[in-house]
Amino acid sequence: MTANMVRLALDCVLALTVVATARGLWLLISWSWPFQFIAMVLTGLLMGAREFALYGMANILCQLTLAGAWFFGPKPMNLPLLGWASFASNVVLMAVMAGTIALNRPLRQKYGLMLQSPETVTLDAGSDEEVRILDEHASMKKAKVRHGDSLTFHICRTQVVCSSRAFAAILGDKSVVTWGDSRHGGNSTDVQHQLKNVQQIQASRDAFAAIVGDGSVVTWGNHNFGGDSTAVRDQLKNVQQVQASRDAFAAIIGDGSVVTWGNPNFGGDSASVQERLRNVQQIQASEFAFAAIVDDGSVVTWGDPEHGGDSSAVQDRLKNVQQIQASRHAFAAVVDDGSVVTWGDSLCGGDSTAVQEQLRNVQHIQASDAAFAAVLCDGSVVTWGHGMCDNLLLGFSCADDKFKTVRQIQASNAAFAAVAADGSVLTWGSAFSGSDSTAGQDRLKNVQQIQASRDAFAAILDDGSVVTWGAGYSGGDSTVVQDQLKNVQQVQASRDAFAAIIGDGSVVTWGNPNFGGDSASVQDQLRNVQQIQASEFAFAAVRADGSIVTWGDPPSGSDSSAVQEQLRLASGSTQLLGNGGAPKEAVVDGVLAMILDLLLQASGTACVYIAAYVSLQDMYQLSAASAALPQYTAYSVALAYVVKLVGPVLVGRQAYVQFAFLMKVMVALSVILGAISAIFILPNLTELAGYYSQQACEFANTRECLGIYAGLFSSGLGKYDSTIFDTFRAFGFTVFATCIFSVAKAGLYACQDFRFMAKASTLVFLVIFLPVLLVARFFFVSATALYVASVLPSWILTLVFLWRLQRYGALVDTSLLFADADDGGDEDGDGNIEAVLPVTGKTPRFSIFGWFLRPGKLYSLESG
């Protein structure tokens, strides 16, 4: 960060130096505008700031347009024509500027000072008395965020869900990208237009179901196994959650009812129990059936009767059920008195009769494919079911006291591994599935967590190393990569392989290569990995920038090359200031950014055009004053460029105090520069009026102009019309106001406060400029009056913009943005980050110099 800030400071000094030098040349050399704009292009290219380069090129285009109008336009009406040509060419200029300002990522990206991951932010705001959900694009003003409120924000990271042979990723913009075997849900083309604002995805073996923001459900994949929900589409409204068996889905609706679809043999048809499915709280699924807990604590089941779909034999005991766990073919429910009720295939855990007396004070249950293990209040473990071998240890009870305090149980296909409170490990079940951990038992100390593949286990120790055991073909042997398994943060498993995320964000894999055990082909891409998801045959790693890297069996999801472009674009859709990264909002911001400059351009052009019909003398006076303005505001415009370069970076980083300080310094400098320019102008009105009038006349090259100013050039200005002095007196004040206006406008641009700028300029144009223009045209009928009318909007807006910055600070009417909430944490385990930030707002006492002495009312978000 320090290096980036130093580079930013040096580049900003370079930008200021180049622009200031170019502006200085413009003061010294007539017709030196190419120096200024070419310098801007070079500066932009050197800095990688697209806005600067395009601004210079667009200005060159604008000037060439004016030159063409000068050469080919009719005379003596060439100056008004030039005005309208300037207006037309500036439309192009401003469109380019607006677009680059609204979408300018390169500068922020270069300095590493922007949000790097495509995250969607959901906001809750309010005091202790009320909580309300805010629109992620809302402004603080519209959201009515007040001093003392707290903002709770939830950052939704890229989420990956997998079926047996396909993946679906919810990206930061809540769209979905799928890849893998199309027969298993890897192709969502037919429903892609519906996959917007996706909240959650659930997967069966061969299909996916996505809950969209409006509460409806979109499905795709194998039509016979849940990929087609057409028959129940009308019922899928206000869906709260979706659960999946192997080949069917069940959705809980907002009113507590349940809708099912998919293969009837796997629970896709709940018609026989539909009347009982009311006020459902949660649903659990085995491979073949579903079990729903109703609000009164009873349980409703449906699906294959032999595999858990029929609980009638134990229905009278299913009361006050707290939780349900499922193996592939059976269910186990924990009742509020701590006892357990089981049903389903008796060979796969559906019959716990032999250990029923031991099942007291059960805390939670873990399931393998065909067995269960219950952890009791005292930390001991009771098991039942089919161990695939004769060493399941039915009703297991260990005499060793340390295994009376089990804190975690993990299950492979047919074995269990339990972590005791002291970090030691006990295993049991089928030897073919990892029950024999004797080879690594001396290293299994201080174990933090365990992960399981089909027939092997991997344990992370407190020193970050990993111990593996079980079938070698399933990842039970990590000898080849053991030296790399240091500082391991987490381990994920496919069917027969493991992938570990190391502290530096790299990934180490081992196990069956056909199941993702070999990541050599993508190893150089596995950097800054934050999470890994696995299907049966492949892995998908989500990096910090939101991109996804895949490996494993190509037909089963490891080959994501067909969607990499979509994933890359999505990872670049980071929310930027004011537009949330969405193209529609960016275009709106761009249009709003143009309105201010277009109205100011229109006011000046309209006054010149009207003057041409009143008096050519007035027209040339206006033209002379307008031509002189850039020369005397050059350095303040250079300051404005610094604000445009540095300001967005500071606001994007929420460095509001630093941004306020920057604005104070720049406004103070612009006041000083404007005062110096005005002081220089007033005593030299005669020379300035003569010089710029002559320049305008020579530029026009018309007999009318030469006739009007013949006396000026032969006998001096003092003996001619004094109105030109009045015009240049107003010009002196305009220089002072414009110097401040340039910096104040740049400050609002940095905040991307485009809506306020558009509203203020439109209001000033309609309410102030047009009436003053009519008065100047029909009552005063002078160049001075028309000139005052043309510059009055910028005078008024200078005061308005300063008031805006003083009164509300940097965040009002700009989209609410937050940096990555590293100090928040995923407390509820939903894959998102939650954090609470208090809002503080301070309003200074009214003072003419108050804004320079205090930051003003600057809403700040302080890390909680």
Automatic annotation (TrEMBL):
InterPro entries: Ran_GTPase-activating, RCC1/BLIP-II. It comes from Symbiodinium microadriaticum (Dinoflagellate). It comes from the Eukaryota. Keywords: Membrane, Transmembrane, Transmembrane helix. The chain crosses the membrane at residues 31-47, 52-72, 84-104, 632-652, 659-682, 730-751, 763-780, 786-805. SUPFAM superfamilies: RCC1/BLIP-II. This is Putative E3 ubiquitin-protein ligase HERC2. The lineage of its organism: Eukaryota, Sar, Alveolata, Dinophyceae, Suessiales.
